[in-house]
Amino acid sequence: MNGTFESIKTIVDGLNNASLDPKAEVVIAPPFPYLSWTKEHVKASNVAVSAQNAYERGDGAYTGEVSVSQLKDVGASWVILGHSERRHVLKETDEFIAAKVKFAIDNGLSVIFCIGETLDERKADKTMAVNQRQIDAVVAKLDKSDWEKVVIAYEPVWAIGTGLAATPEDAQEVHAAIRKYLTEKVDQSVADKTRILYGGSVNGKNAKTFNEKQDVDGYLVGGASLKPEFIDIVNARQ
Ligand code: PGA
Cellular component per GO (predicted)? Predict the structure, then answer.
């Protein structure tokens, strides 16, 4: 829930004027009111537009919700689901999030599916148990082919917006465990192909430090995406 028309215009202008790594797949996720404008004005072909949420049902009497078909209508091709703020502030359950993931995929959106443990859960040695529980709800709903439309974002809650990113080693450890879990719960090819992003205090300086970690496939960026350094993150793999 950040941004104004003016600030979002600045971000889009910045992307349009930058030289972006042509191999990077960039997805920007402005709040709902700015999706249409953003889609119309972003120029680079490797920049897609995402919503930050969607509902689990089609159009109808669900006042205040936004449907997948409406998002597609204004040019979104992705949706972020399960973000920690949806889980912890808005109290969305694993099952509700999983239902939204399935509905979005069935109706033509790709999904950035977020998971992650809180600091208390990490301290209690429950990191993988929590991430597995969040993944299980989605595994139960998806067909194998649905996974082609899913990118997982591992975002430890303690690292989001705190300035305290996970170390590349910590991120790699969890990402590798997530991939192994996908092998067990879905299959090897899905585990190999599913991209796993790291999110939580990624910035223009630390993005490169994750480059050599083989299971870190990219980033989900919050605060730094609102600043010019976002371009450095996009280009971190060059
Ligand atoms: P951050 O946010 O990059 O500011 O930590 C990440 C997020 O909101 O997903």
Answer: cytosol
pLDDT of residue 32: 98
**What is the distance in angstroms between the CA of the first residue and the CA of the last residue of the chain?**
31
Tell me the per-residue pLDDT of 131-167, one tens digit each, with 9 for 90 and over: 999 999 999 999 999 999 999 999 999 999 999 999 9
- The verdict on whether 173 is a catalytic residue reads no
Residue 161: CB atoms within 10 A of its CB come to: 13
Spacing, Cα 192 to ligand 1 middle (Å): 25
Q: Whole-model pTM?
A: 0.98
Please tell me whether residue 234 adopts helix, strand or coil conformation: helix
CATH level 3 topology of 46-55+65-235:
TIM Barrel (3.20.20)
Is 155 tagged catalytic? yes
